[in-house]
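tool_call: predict_structure(chain=1)
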Amino acid sequence: MKNILIIGGSYFVGRVFVEELLKKKDYSIYVLNRGNIPFNRKEVTEIVCDRHDAGEMKRLLPEVDWCAVVDFCAYAPEDISSTLSVLPPNRTGQYIYVSTCSVYSQTSDLPIKEHAEKLDGPQPELGPFADYGFNKWRAELQLEKHAEEQGMPFTSIRPSFIYGKYNYAPRESYFFDLIVKGEPIIIPRDNLSLFSFVSVWDVAWILLGCIENRTVFNRAFNASAWELISYRRLMEVFEMITDQKLLIQEKTTEEIEELQTPLPFPLHEHLVYSGSLIQSILDFTYTPLLEGMRETYRYYRIGHGLS
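tool_result:
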């Protein structure tokens, strides 16, 4: 059995990844996080630790060879540095970092591919999330630097908007809540911003395909399905998966901003990414939005005791 260390891994993408990894039967799985949402699975060794406490992390980690480390919760370069400082030298086969498509600067050259220009500073217009994309990019750079120094292969995966089972972000669930309550859904009337989605199952599958895969060593990849989604298209999909006519109110972007309607996707820009590179390397097909969102809604209803 090969040892794999998962940092984070109890929420959303990480949890789905672990569930899929358990089906492989090839790995001894270690999950390190703060223990807020335990797996309670005998096949998973859970290490309760704050990753920012390097001393405690070093004390608790077993002295084994890691075929891979999969990091779901590094949000700054310091997170990468402190983690690599406690991993045994020359005993980590690969470091897989879950980054984000938010590392890219705004551009009209769409879809955005891996070589596109990256952020060179925070984005004050995003308020409390101003540092998010920039710090994830800095973390990628830190990983590349340390990996080169240690002779350790790395892979960075940059998902676009992720939806699916266990999603704690108010994205699709924002709309599901309104649909279930029979309340009107406000969408832009005079705007056709387009954005890219990727299902949580696809991200988990991509991560699995990257483990010990030399073709992805020392490279970064977008994870993003091919469909171009607008608010109107999203409403069409929701009507199909719920089999009901939605109460939709179209308003101008100015009215939406004045009302402070918390729409989860952009109003003034396109966020469209190409995930074709990793798709061609791993030879898989992204889940169509209709299929993935139907499964997502099924899990939503189960979680809310509706079916």
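agent: Residues 2-166+197-224+272-290 form a domain with the Rossmann fold fold (CATH 3.40.50.720). Proceeding to next step.
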